[in-house]
Amino acid sequence: MKPLLIRAAVALGFIALYLWLAILGEGGFAAYFSSPARTGLAVVLIFMGVASAFVGGNISPGLREDRANRWVIPALMIVGLVGAYLPAWADQQGVWLLDGEAVRWLGVALLAAGGALRLWPVAVLGHRFSGLVAIQPGHQLVTTGLYSRIRHPSYLGLFISAFGWGLAFNTGVGVLLALLNIPPLVARMNSEERLLSSEFGAEYDAYRARTARLIPGVY
């Protein structure tokens, strides 16, 4: 039970910080929750935080880790925290606004879809899913389900969520900030694929040859 409580505390603490920054950017609670779409965004975000505590995963270096890739974690956290505040501030200030409530609700839907796609692989991999690039005890290559088409569904989910968050504030600023996730995510995928190729050899190379990183037929 203890690991679950720790995961729950960390997840909910991060969600609380994220929401607080967005509320601050919008000018306070009343301003933030004056929009039904932003209220829906908060509900989805809280649900995702609670769900993330139950799906598993860890931050163990396991049996072998690519420590040189650890810079990606603070990079994504910085982009995420700036992305929590700045789109809300731009929304409140009327900077580079898009097209109203339809865009906001599209963002909420994308956040929910991306969150589900982000958490599903964690639930599938369980203890083998680490916040670090590492080979875990009993590590096996999973090539079924969604993994039969794409190799990094969790990172695709993260990007879709970031994109949805930006759209939910109806500003192009949020879209640009979502794009800043791409360099660290690509570096993360490169590191993971090198490590998995060294661990599983020809099996992983054949798997990589028949699948897409993120989007079949595109990348």
Main attributes of the structure:
single chain, Four Helix Bundle (Hemerythrin (Met), subunit A), mainly alpha, two-stranded antiparallel ribbon, 219 residues, 67% helix, 2 strands
Could you give a short description of this structure?
It comes from Methylocystis borbori. This protein is mainly alpha-helical.
Describe the overall structure.
67% of the residues lie in helices and 2% in strands. The chain is mainly alpha-helical and 219 residues long. The chain has a single domain (2-210), classed as Up-down Bundle (Four Helix Bundle (Hemerythrin (Met), subunit A)). It has a two-stranded antiparallel sheet. Helix 1 (2-26) runs antiparallel to helix 3 and helix 3 runs parallel beside helix 5. The protein starts with a helix and ends in a 9-residue tail after the last helix.
Q: Which structural class do you get from the secondary structure elements?
A: mainly alpha
CATH class: Mainly Alpha
* Helical coverage, percent range: 55-70%
Strand order in the sheet with the most strands: 1-2
Would you identify the regions where 5 or more consecutive residues have pLDDT less than 50?
none
* Share in β-strands: under 5%
Question: What best-fitting shape do the alpha-carbon axes yield?
Answer: globular
Distance between the ends: 40 Å
The CATH topology is given as Four Helix Bundle (Hemerythrin (Met), subunit A)
Rg, nearest Å: 18 Å
Largest sheet: 2 strands, antiparallel
Q: Number of DSSP strands?
A: 2
Q: Compute the number of helices.
A: 9
The overall pLDDT, averaged over residues, is: 94
The helix/strand order is: HHHEHHEHHHH
CATH architecture heading: Up-down Bundle
- Overall domain count: 1
